[in-house]
Amino acid sequence: MDLHSGMPFWVVLNPLYNYYKPLKTNIETHTVIIGSGITGALVAHSLCSLGIDCVVIDKRTIATGSTAASTSQLQYEIDEPLCDLIEKVGKKDAEDAYKYCLQSITDIENVFKSIGKNPDFERVPTYLLASNQKGKKLLQKEFQARKEAGLPVTFLEKEPLKKDLGVDALAALYNETSAQVDCYKAATYLLDHHLQNNELQLYSHTLISDYNETKNGYELVAENGNIINCKNVVIAAGYEAGTFLPKKVMDLLSTFAIVSHPVDASFIWEKRALIWETKTPYLYVRTTADNRIIVGGEDEAYNNPEKRDKALTKKTNILEKKFQKMFPEIPFVTDMSWAGTFSATRDGLPYIGLYPGKPNMYFALGYGGNGITFSMIAAQVIANLISGKPDDRARLFGFNRTK
């Protein structure tokens, strides 16, 4: 699948992780991870940290799938507001899902401290803006739900919001627990760390075209005919996991993003906060380490890559106008724009763990706008399950939660 088009910022900003090593022989290992993006990298880190022998496989150049197109915001908020999620999955599970996401931001931070490399991880606040009166009512309801859950949140009325952020909006929810990162750098840092420490085998440009269950696990067949025998398989291929899933569990969407020329630091708003809104589809805004501004949104149903790519110019213009309306004093000039494919589930939650009837095949599918924090959770859950430790998050985010 063509996961993105245009010029994703991260693969322009960073030197390409120049790694070319297709699988050219039959091998055997304990666990195979399919996908070398941020999800696969976090899973590999968790397994390597436990001393579990594992192999990462990707059909592309390392970390150049959907990870390259991510805007890399880390928030505890899920696409589904807590007040709505409570109605779908129940109060305790909904609150737990939000709390797990909150904890995962710190866990991600600690992962990179443990390897001594920083992929531009930066703690920043978040503002969720009310787009209209309906949005303000939603924020009032959401504020109460989050307060009852003990989550960090502040309700801001119009005037304090204008003073703090410089934006005209009816209200906002604010917290200081979010972060932003360079997810391409994050994925390649993790994989390279374990590769250099001889804890990981990494094969690029290798497509797994078929698989068979065996008495000891799985036999994975590469397109060139080479075979990998393993006990466990972890599918961290995101939206391309359909080859291994018996049925569809998500809807594909197209999203669009632009990044500005660097601007003078005086134009950057207070504390470099992440900004998004209640409107659907929502606009989201962040900054980068070199004072660029990333604006994303204008999501729509995914039909085909050609239609998505043709819409890029139009969507770029819309995103520019929306940002200029929000911050008219900031000189925003688009430097790069891109379109990407992502997916959403009906309850806004990821799918993590074993699929019923597929023993030893684990899925790490961090669907939705909160994909990286879900990926951290998936890495921890799957590492626990493979090492024989129960993890209640596997129930909450598992395939059995939906009929």
Question: What this model shows, in words?
Answer:
- With 403 residues, the chain is of the alpha+beta class.
- It has two domains: 4-70 and 184-249 and 348-401, FAD/NAD(P)-binding domain (3-Layer(bba) Sandwich); 123-177 and 251-344, D-Amino Acid Oxidase, Chain A, domain 2, CATH 3.30.9.10.
- It contains eleven helices and 18 strands.
- The chain has helices at residues 9-13, 38-49, 82-89, 91-115, 133-149, 158-165, 183-196, 305-310, 312-326, 371-386, 393-396; strands at residues 4-6, 27-34, 54-57, 73-74, 122-129, 154-157, 171-180, 201-203, 208-214, 217-222, 227-235, 251-260, 274-277, 284-287, 293-301, 334-344, 351-354, 361-365.
- The strands form two sheets. Strands 1, 4, 5, 6, 7, 12, 13, 14, 15 and 16 form a ten-stranded mixed beta sheet that branches.
- The mean pLDDT is 92.
Furnish the topology, listing elements before pairings.
Layout: E1 4-6, H1 9-13, E2 27-34, H2 38-49, E3 54-57, E4 73-74, H3 82-89, H4 91-115, E5 122-129, H5 133-149, E6 154-157, H6 158-165, E7 171-180, H7 183-196, E8 201-203, E9 208-214, E10 217-222, E11 227-235, E12 251-260, E13 274-277, E14 284-287, E15 293-301, H8 305-310, H9 312-326, E16 334-344, E17 351-354, E18 361-365, H10 371-386, H11 393-396
Parallel strand pairs: 2-3, 2-11, 3-8, 5-13, 11-18
Antiparallel strand pairs: 1-16, 4-7, 5-7, 6-7, 9-10, 10-11, 12-15, 12-16, 13-14, 14-15, 17-18
Helix pairs in contact: 2-7, 2-10, 3-4, 4-10
Q: What's the overall geometry?
A: globular
CATH topology (fold) name of the largest domain = FAD/NAD(P)-binding domain
Q: Tell me about the largest β-sheet.
A: 10 strands, mixed
Helix fraction?
25-40%
Separation of termini?
28 Å
The topology string of helices and strands comes to EHEHEEHHEHEHEHEEEEEEEEHHEEEHH
By CATH, the superfamily of the largest domain comes out as FAD/NAD(P)-binding domain
* Architecture (CATH level 2) name of the largest domain: 3-Layer(bba) Sandwich
- The number of helical segments is 11
What gyration radius follows from the Cα positions, in whole Å? 21 Å
InterPro entries: FAD-dep_OxRdtase, FAD/NAD-bd_sf
Domain FAD dependent oxidoreductase: 31-385
Organism: Paenimyroides aestuarii
Protein name: FAD-binding oxidoreductase
